[in-house]
Amino acid sequence: MLTARMIEILKAIIDEFVQTAEPVGSKTLVEKYGIDYSSATIRNDMASLETMGYLEKPHTSAGRVPSSKGYQFYCEHLLNKDVDDEVKYTISNIFKKDTMNIEDAIKESCKVISEMTSLTSGMLGPSAGSQELEHLKVFPIDDKTAVCVFITNTGYTENKTFNFKENVTSEDIENCVEILNDRLKGTKIRDLSIKLESLKPILTQTVKRHEMLYNAFLSAFVKFASDTLYFEGKSNLMYQPEYSDIEKLKEIVRYFDDTNLFKKLASHEVNDAFAITPRGTELVWKDDLAIISSEIKLNSEDNAKLMVVGPKRMEYGKVVSLLDFIAKEIEDMYK
Questions:
Q1: What confidence category does residue 270 fall into, taking pLDDT thresholds of 50, 70 and 90?
Q2: For the whole model, what pTM was predicted?
């Protein structure tokens, strides 16, 4: 059983290791953290903490570093989850823009989180596959570029940019959109690409540049039916000493580029996953990678995850409090 003194020592070691990434010795605990016990007593408690599995001792150092069990105890019992007023003000201002939809708000939140934590932040959005297409609009930018806005029956929106190889007239775009809205409304998102195939003869007769528009919509439908995965600040991981090994960094980057792999990684399919806060903020570990995620309820059916990705050695209190606060703000503003 952990004594109050052991808990004090464990917390100080984790706080110091988070800041320095260096093993922590008894001298540092006395001089920097003012732990008022003899060095011998502290060393004995550190040895006990190691035996109990809360600390580990690197082969090349006399100091100790936190173990997964130590981090878990820290996250469950010792976190300071307060968000200061300046941070609250900065975050609250994000959601004061009347024109900002929920996806843009989450992405802007990711940017703020990444800047405040110097880690990678991200969003794992809901799969729109089970939703139905309500309406789509296309806004031409120039003769070779247009932006398509998809709206589902639940109010979820998604933007896709079309880049055409040749000029496409506004008339062709309008005719194509009119046909698609007329024939595809109420179609499950996951079935759009299949139903689009059946409309190809109609598009061929009505739209001059039918082939380019068909391919643009087909690609957009396929992407829309898959999970949305977005990251901000991926380059921040390059500056973490844990990922100085280029091969290790490549493995981390591979996770970011594969939606299905990352979704699996950020779920309970991975060992060492546990809840940290009452609202359901979770922590998942994979080797020396930590993913903290907070669920955002978009509507009665769909959820998104706001996440922070980094090494195990991260400021858990700061990260968890940010995610909890922002997730609740988004839900309150957009529910």
A1: low
A2: 0.73
